[in-house]
From TrEMBL:
InterPro entries: Leu-rich_rpt, Leu-rich_rpt_typical-subtyp, LRR-SigEffector_domain, LRR_dom_sf, LRR_R13L4/SHOC2-like
Domain (Disease resistance R13L4/SHOC-2-like LRR): residue spans on this chain: 39-144
Protein name: Disease resistance R13L4/SHOC-2-like LRR domain-containing protein
Entry keywords, A to Z: Leucine-rich repeat, Repeat
Superkingdom of origin: Bacteria
Source organism of the structure: Amycolatopsis lurida NRRL 2430
UniProt lineage: Bacteria, Bacillati, Actinomycetota, Actinomycetes, Pseudonocardiales
Amino acid sequence: MTTRLDLSGQGLTSLPGLPLPASLEHLDLYDNQLTSVPDELWSLSGLRVLNLAANRLTAISPAIGALRNLHTLDLGHNELPALPDELGELTGLTEYLYVSDNRLTEFPAALCSLDRLKYLGCTDNRIPTLPDDLSGLASLREFRLYGNGLTDLPESIGTLSALRELHLRKNLLTSLPSSLGQLSELRQLDLRENKLTSLPSSIARLSKLDKLDLRWNKELREPSWLADFEARGCMVLR
């Protein structure tokens, strides 16, 4: 019984007449030249891992919402201007969702329904703001948002109580919400290449933080509590 099919790096421009066995659990189409995928793919209800990264996709069918057993989905490095709301119906998506390096201009609010997801990569798009309510991403451990042009963060970022890594490099942030101090599990906070002038004092409460990267914030006034961070072994990069 075929459960895995690896067609990565084959230079494929289409999948005409390709038989996709109903038993398929892992489908890898990474690094091809696909501009679309056959509708047959969305009927593979047993899929657990789907890699469509590094193609030339400009749209994803709403029918993707039928893949309820997916735990890992990679749509990165394509040409997607938007994502279907039906991604929020992928209740089995627990491990990994990667939508980086596309042409997204909005963070899909539907993703905030993925309350079991651990990793979300949404870097190198064109997203200036996040939804007001991020609390649905309750299991998220790693959140990558660098290279988007973000101008602010919602206070609800502080509700992500499982978060261990928050990557915000190369945005347009001038300030941060005080709710960041509620992220009690946070280990890494990357704030490089923003426009920060100060840091909220609440960050000083992040007792598990072991890396704080502040480089290339030219106008940042460093708070005195950074010395306390360094004294307890946190790496502070200026």
